[in-house]
Each structure stands twice: as C-alpha cells, then as structure tokens.
Amino acid sequence: MRQQVNGHISGSDAQAGESIREELQEFLGGEALLHQLDDLTKVNPVTLETVLRCLQARYSADTFYTNAGCTLVALNPFKPVPQLYSTELMQEYHAAPQPQKLKPHIFTVGEQTYRNVKSLMEPVNQSIVVSGESGAGKTWTSRCLMKFYAVVAASPTSWESHEIAERIEQRILNSNPVMEAFGNAGTLRNNNSSRFGKFIQLQLNRAQQMTGAAVQTYLLEKTRVACQASSERNFHIFYQICKGASADERLQWHLPEGATFSWLPNPERTLEEDCFEVTREAMLHLGIDAPTQNNIFQVRGKATPLTCGSGDGQPVL
C-alpha cells in the first residue's frame, strides 16, 4: 500500500509509479505495432490506456476481433464486412488443426465449443455468453454463430443433414425479426436496442449434427410500454402497426387514420417501423398463420389507443 508521510508518497511507491510510467511510454512509443497484438494479455503494462489504444489501433486496421486470454473482444465495425463472415472462412476455421492459432474470430469460439462436445466421451452442454453494451453487436454476433453451426454441424455427405441444418438456421433467423419487432426499441444509444435477454439452445445428435433448436426470452422491459425516457421510443411493433396497417386493418384494429398517441413518441425516426411486412412474413415462416396474426395485431392495436393519451393527460381517443 502507499504510505504518505507529511502528504508525500513513500520513496518505494514513487519509484514504482515512475517505473510504470516509463513502461507505458515505451509501450506507446511502438504504437505502429499495436494493431499486431492479437491478445490483450500481451499488452505491457496492462492499463486502461494501453488496452484502449491497442483496440483503437486494431479497429483502425479493420481488425475487429481481439483475444483477452480465454475471452474474445468483438468491436462493432459499423459497416458491412462480408469477407469476414464468408462460408469459405467458416470452413477454414472448422478444418484448421488448431483454430486458436488463426486470427481471433467469433468462428474460433464457435469451433472450440463444437470440438469440446465432439472430444468428450459423454457430451457435456457447452455455453457461449455474448454480452456487451447496447449497440455493441451482440445480436449480429449471435447470428454469425447460428450461420457457423448451420455450416459445420451438418454431415458433409448427407444432403438431408444440410437441409435440416439450413432449415433450423432459417427458422432461428426468421425468429429475429419477430423478436426484434416485439422486443426491441429505439434508445439514445441504439435505434434497434434489444430490451430483453435471449437464450438460444442448439440441439445436436451423437454425430454432432444439428437436429433442433429452441429460443427462450426473458427480462422483457415491460415498463417501456407505458413509459419511455426522453428521446426514446416504444417497441417497434406499435409503430409498425400504425404505419403499415391497411385502411381495412386500421378500421378493424380501431386505429383511426392520422391518430397520434403520446406513448408512441418520436415516430419516423428509424427504418424499423417500415418493417411490418417483414415481421408478418417472418411470422408466417414460423407457423403463425394470417388469422392468428390478425388476432395478435388486433389486441396490439386496441391496446395502443387505450393506453395512450395526449400530452395533457386527456385520452386522444
């Protein structure tokens, strides 16, 4: 511990602090090489500044994945990088004798987890935790893992196995527009922020081929229906219904043309509210037929005017 005498730090602590500063300057002096450090445990000294500078250098070099020991740090590129997620690259990581020796990637995590199942005499459930701030790219990372397993967890000699894996992947991907419509909203930091947690379970047989999947949601931010922070929005589905419903549907769902609702603030702010047809199509692919959809939207439509009022507390409808 630091010891102070008459307001001064003891000599040994002062020397240690000076040594760290010298190491820091020496490390940052070679900043041109920072983007080559693929593991943050190689940063020396390990300080907030050196870690951030390393990530910044790698981001500037379009290198968006960095190891931190056994953890993978993923940076949101905020631009399309299709070559980073190609089927060919998936196969490269899947076929590599030691994928951990390739460049850090979400496919490395996916492949190591897959091999953990294959290498055990009695398979043990494996979990991948995708966490981060709003807008960090968690949903995209989950999608990449889904596509990776759809490619690798299928028999290379069985067309039927490929079809099953692709069908499972497609159903999971089709669930995304539905869950995003009903569970995502615009926030200050992210126009398409998930307001719920999601647990995706992939089911493999003893040959490690994908045979099924299940998606569970939890911790939905229900209070957002009635209360949103300044400059934030309600769930996308309400805006989609109000904007995408036909004249007949508006009449059936009790949504008068041109009506406004105080609990649906900041309309016309995101593209997500233009996705009503995408949501409906995804629901059809998941087995939710048109009559069932109509019942769902009718309840949602009725809920909107009942729960929403004008700014002065008087109901609009």
Strand arrangement, major sheet: 1-2
What is the overall pLDDT average?
Answer: 82
How many angstroms does the end-to-end distance come to?
67 Å
**CATH level 4 superfamily of the largest domain:** Kinesin motor domain
Q: What is shown here, in short?
A:
With 317 residues, this protein is mainly alpha-helical.
Written account of the structure:
The protein has helices spanning 11-29, 48-60, 87-95, 106-119, 138-152, 159-183, 236-244, 247-252, 276-285, 290-307, and strands at 4-5, 8-9, 65-68, 71-74, 184-185, 193-194, 197-204, 210-218. With 317 residues, it is mainly alpha-helical. It folds into three domains: 23-63, no CATH class; 67-223, Kinesin, CATH 3.40.850.10; 227-307. Strand 5 and strand 6 form a beta hairpin. Helix 5 packs antiparallel against helix 6 (159-183). ATP binds at residues 132-139.
